[in-house]
Structure formats: structure tokens, C-alpha cells
Amino acid sequence: AQSVTQLGSHVSVSEGALVLLRCNYSSSVPPYLFWYVQYPNQGLQLLLKYTSAATLVKGINGFEAEFKKSETSFHLTKPSAHMSDAAEYFCAVNSNTGFQKLVFGTGTRLLVSP
Amino acid sequence: GAGVSQSPSNKVTEKGKDVELRCDPISGHTALYWYRQSLGQGLEFLIYFQGNSAPDKSGLPSDRFSAERTGGSVSTLTIQRTQQEDSAVYLCASSDGLASNEQFFGPGTRLTVL
Q: What pLDDT score was predicted for residue B1?
């Protein structure tokens, strides 16, 4: 069984500040991990993914995430927030075993203030 | 070369009516997924098609929900005798079924049951 926990339903930062969105996972098999972003009234867009290669993954729009097996974490960071980063962010897990449905966290809404 | 498309973008229906939601996956993608996004429930897996294999329907919430995929391409999600709790955004995703497991999402269909 797999699950994802996103700590904090809302995170507020100032423009230019560090963004840190937390994700912890549980998986009985080696996981693949994903971060998706959802802008209002739009579908999900992949930010980045971990598929057992490099543990530090760089994605689009300056985001990156680090897979830490010992902490079962895959936190998303960005050094400097931009107003356009305001959106909802979802962490998800699946694996390369069995079928590949994504199990999502409950999402974190990022608010960016000027 | 378009992405995943879904239609309609919005659907308003009366309780008890049947609805059909359509998904056109990315050409050549063998795997197709339906998810539901609703307040309080987050993103839930509904059903998964992979090639010619029998679909995995383990996420369908009741027997009022069904889906088919014709010719390995277009998929239709049908909800019979709609209830107010069916109101949600229904998201379709497709993938090439390879090890990267990356799923590409459509914009969703927002279903409102009055």
C-alpha cells in the first residue's frame, strides 16, 4: 500500500522568499514520486519526478525536490518565490511494480504576497 | 500533438440523470486513468486502462459509475442516476506505460449535480 502526507494545507510566503512544501510518503515497494501543480480551473501539470535515479531532482519553474529514503520525504523547494507560483501543489506516489495509479496527497495551497 | 483533452469542460445536470464524460488521450499512450477531485476527498483514483488488458475498476465508488475505452484510445466515463455527491472535477490522464510512469492530465470536466 502507498500513501502520501502533505503537511500544511496552506503555506504563505512573501515574494522572493524560500518556498518549502513538505511531502512524506509510505510505500512497501521502491517508490516513484511526483510533484504536480494545479492553477485555478486547470488540470495538473508535472513539476518534477523521482524515478530512482538522482535523489536531487530539478523541475520546471526553478523548483527542485530531494528524495530522502531515511526520512521517507520528498519536499519541494524553490529559493525565491514569484507571484506566479501561487497555486495548489500535489505530491503523489506510485511505483514500477503492479499497476501505476497515482496516490495523491491532499494538496498544499501556496499563497505568495508582494 | 495536442495533450489530453476532455469534454465537456463543464456539465450541469439534475439529480437522477445520466452523464457521459469524454477523454481523448495523447496519441500512442497505452495507459489511461480517470481520477476525481472533490472538496473533502482530494484526488481519488477511479479506473485504469492499460492496452488490451481488463481495466482496473477498484476505485469506482459505486456501480453507478462505469467507463469504457474504445479502440484503445478515447474513453467515456458514465455516471448513472447522478447524485449530488457526484459533483466534482473529473480528471483524465494518459501515459505511455513505460517505466517513467509520468501521467499527463487533461483540464478536467467540472460536474455539478443539482
A: 55
Judge whether residue A21 has pLDDT over 70. yes
Q: Is B40 an interface residue toward A (CB < 8 Å)?
A: no
Query: In one letter, which amino acid is B100?
Result: S
**Separation in Å, CA B63 to CA B23, B78, B80:** 20, 10, 9
Using the predicted structure, report yes or no on whether residue A61 has a pLDDT greater than 90.
Answer: yes
CA A25, CA A22: separation in Å to the nearest integer?
10
Question: Does any CB of chain B come closer than 8 Å to the CB of residue A6?
Answer: no
| Local confidence band at B86 (pLDDT 50, 70, 90 cut-offs) | very high
User: Which amino acid does the sequence have at A36?
Assistant: Y
Interchain proximity A102–B97, CB inside 8 Å: no
Per-position DSSP letters for A92-110, written without gaps between them: EEEESSS----EE---EEE
B100, pLDDT greater than 70: no
